[in-house]
Request: fold
Amino acid sequence: MEDRDALEEESYDAYDGRDAIIFLIDASVPMFKKPPVDDIDAAQTENDCPFVLAIKCAYNTLCSKIFTDPNDSVAIVLFGTKKTAPNDKYGVYTNTFLLQDLQNPDCEPITQLDDMLNKDGGMDEYMYAESNPQSISLADSLWLCSSIFSKHKSKTDKKQIFLFTNNDEPHSKFSTKQKQAERRIGDLQDGGVSIFLFPIGEEFNTTKVYQELLVSNDKGGILPGSMTTDELLLKICRKCQKKRTFATLGFNLDSNTKFGVRLYNLIRPAAQPKRVPLDKRTNEPVKSVTTKFNAETAETLLPSELIKCTTVCDEKIRLDKNDLASLKSKFPSGFTLLGFIPIGKLKLHFYLSPASFIYPDEDLVKGSRMIFGALVHRCKARGFAPLCVLKITAAMKPRIVALLPHEEHDPNQAPLFGFHVIILPFRNDVRKFNYSELVESTTVLNDERKFLTSKVGYTPSDYLDPALRTKWNTLEGMALGRENIESVEDLVMPDLDAIDDRLGQRSTTFNDLVFPLGYQSPYVPSASKAKDPKNEAAVEEAAKNGWVCIVTNT
Amino acid sequence: MSYSKNSNWSQPGTSHRPNSKAIKPKNGYVLIADIGSPTSRILHRDRTYAQQIKECLIAFIQQKIFINNAIDDVAVILSGSDKTQNSLDYKNIQVLKNMEKVSWETAKLVNETVQTKNCEGDWMDALGVALDLIHRKVKAGNVYSSIQIIFFTAFESPFKTSERTQKAYISALLAEHTSLFIVGSNINQEILENEEKMSKGELTACQLIREANGGIYSFGDFSADVVNCTEQPKIGSPFNVTLDIGSKIQIPISAYIKTKKSDSLKWSEEISTGEALVDKERTYQKEQSNAIIDKQDVLTAFKYGSRIIPITVEDEKQWSYKSGNKCLSVLAFVDPIPPQFGSGTGTRFIFSHRKSGVVDRNSQIALSALINAMAETGKVALVRYVYANNCRMALGVLSPRIKFKYECLVFHELPFADDWRQYEFPPIITPKSQPSHEQMEAIDQLIDKLDLTNDEAFDSTKMSDPYEEYVRHVIGFKVLNPEDPLPEIPPHIKMYLQPSPSLMEGAKDVLERIRQLFPLQTTGKLKINDFEASKREAIPATAEEMEREIQNKKSRLDVGGDVDLGFILGMNSVDKVGTTNPVKDFSLLLQSGKKSVEEIYDEMSKVILELLEDSGGTNAPLMVKAKNCIEAYREHSVAEGRVAYFNRWMKQFKEQVISNYFTDFWQKYLTESLGLITKDECPSSDVDKHQAETFLRLPKQQQVNEIDSVDEDEELLNLID
Reply:
């Protein structure tokens, strides 16, 4: 059993530079039935038929992939259609329609889907769903998928099929068609293709057919039934994220016992759309080349002619580049266990940089899973965190880290089992404060504490980055020649009215209590345009801290 | 000696100077080293007392160079020197370095000068010189926030003192707020308690310290104190803003950076041959032709699929997101956020507004109310954070922190949806796969044995960053020993990165049990990984792996070197098989088709002989080279079916081997399979297996180790039969 689990993990973990995804969308009659309108509120927001939902998913995937993973490929195949488009490349498949061939995300496919979704009657062309369910063959559409993958140029891509349907029984259990589908799925999975089923509708009964079709295999799986676009999108978004291992490392319990782990960075700033330099006159892309030359003689220099130097107390110290680099590599890489510390004793309020996550790696050391699993489990149960020395890559310094055990059981969350790697600061990373200068003894205000109103908990997915999204939206609008570019809703903007409402009279009472009449705030906001030296200093500090201003040259 | 007690000495920050920012408080140190003849005695590890002093002095000076912006003043006085050099003209007292801003020069001087001299110095004299030095400096207007005299001596040389002198010294020490430290004496706790055991010198020194100020250190304690060359940064300038809750409540606050990754030393590039600076220039070139394009004609663009969207800076400014004025505004109060959701570059502590050192009372009351309310309800605040007008906007969290001495809000950033990856990590412990009861128990025992609850040693906030320490160690070493190779990591730094030996010793049995209970088998994958991600992979932990890694690197380097060289030197234009890289030449020539195959074969056979002759039958690398040549030659012959040519040469070659006494080479390298080409290998051959076997055997009288070889041969034959 353990072997199979390991295998499953393998398929999740295989390194993937690029993805090739086929959206396999059921276009038979039931997919065009609008959901029953029980709830008036729900009806207003979500009144799309399942087919439209699926197309929306494909559309959104393309729109974000064009920025995040422009080298991925996406195809859209409809099945259960009456229309069959003969195709020179792949041949003819009954009741199957190739809406978009496998290709990198680009303007045309996005416009096509945009038109389908937003133009009046855009969907009509595809509404000719096959009315006779008996003639539909899942196997045929899967066959087309496998032809698409086999003709795909890039063989190393991670191949996936996302199957969207609300029909939980396309063929009866022991029919010939079911057997054929089973065989096709087997072939696809043997060829390294993962198949994920996105069942639409709460009623979807996976036990009828699909469980047997998909679960009995290592690759792919069934996602819990969903109804709204948001739910579906979230799931696709999760599936599309590339599980990139940042490093594979040894974990040393002591010099004799060592297991393997993979390290992932779950929180890192999202990549900004890439800039390319362009020749203004011809709009041709150009490359930028940095050359180094001798400041005195203006001779161009080769890398071998350079040396690193630093000045300490008026003395210049020169080190060979390789020597300087070798200083870091003198520290061994991987995790070295120092001991265990109760989580409560950790100074977690001293946050330094984003955490990482580790999960065992059987490829490095066989048997890692079991010891890792036992460690996580016992640490979690007893509230202990392993304290380790960690050096991740040759270019990184050794650090002291605390490992926070995590066992996630919430079915609505992505499963998460392992250790969070929290970097702890060294003495030189912590500023020394003289608290007596910062705090005066105060008279504590006794009442008026109840004005705090609480909302739900925080999860990052609630807050899209408005700056990044604005950029995406604008570029998309420009590329597709849209006239109106939708502005992005800023979710990180306090709803002043709502807060004021909630506080009501209490804010006035609070102010009266702490700020006497005629109180002048010592803080005077500086006007944005004024050449305020204080403001400039602040900008400089911001730049020092690596916080790049969006606007320059004010 | 008279000391005017003017009040130049002042507390930092309360300086009478108008601009307190310009003057940083510096410290003054006078180091006195006894290098008289008694210091030649050996302490431990073959080091003399004087050498030990020297190490301490250098470590001390180095530390002062790296910390406090190197503004501290350091003087060095030698007692028992063969030179007399001081303003009071005391004999055998040498002021090696006057009290000046610390510099590498001082360290170099100490490095060169400090060694046992065949003289003896009066330590009271030396102390007098030090006090005089300090007095002069202070009189000249130098302001020190503290002055220390650090005296390295064991009081083994004779000295003179009187009650009057001692009194004068004490008042001098007190006058300039100078502390006196004795390092490396025989005084320890036991002796301190029993004054009768003290030598006269020790007793006098103790009296001085008691009356004035100071302490007694052993060499070890002293080293431990001065070994760290990094310091804890001081409080920076705050981010001032109002903390807004809705539109009505605005609390003026100051946010100070509490944690942030410390800056490493900056390294710039220079030309290896001279001191000239390096300039950088960025040019833009056409993709294909490399033609340079004027900077003004270059525009930035974004790619959207295959479409390119050119955008001017002004345009981008127009449509990009506007974060608005700088702010810290509450969005909602929520449950505490798990630590793994931290983002950004560090932590800020938020206190009430403070302007020119004065805390605003009203805002403190307001902030305090908020902090306490949050703590009581167990909530934290989500905030919108903009550092400066229209700068990057971030989502952040404020958590209450209440300590005995202070209370504040702790701020750090949080990730947006786009910054968070929700990878799936399926549970490992499932009903199907579960560790045994014993396995779980062993892990529990490990946790108990390695429990650091009461161990302060591994509190990272009390540790210096080991890498930064090491870099400074290397720099100090390089300044004093410019020609030597880089030093290894010194033990006091390594110590930070290793589990405590006593703890590990205690856990030995449990670790052994774990090793038995959890079968772990290292695969060869690590190596492959190294190769694929050579840039990302650091060196492995164990010595054995390190070795392998080095080997790996070497071979990689070799391969790479070959290719590069070949490319640069235009190896494609090889016109002859040479002895440097014969196999490569051979194959290149065959590929190029410039010469007939026979010609190339002949060249190769000549090279083989040449190599053998050069080897003299003993040089292994050359013999291996020759063997590789034969291999290549033979391989090509088999592939091309040029059997007769090769076999004819082989027979000739054997004769040459025998006549030149290269029999060692033959036996070592060829007897396996590098003889005549057989029928099995190539149908056009007329040699069968048996013939080939016999051919490989050398005539008996020529064999060096007859019996062994015969045995081997027979074994071979047996195998074949």
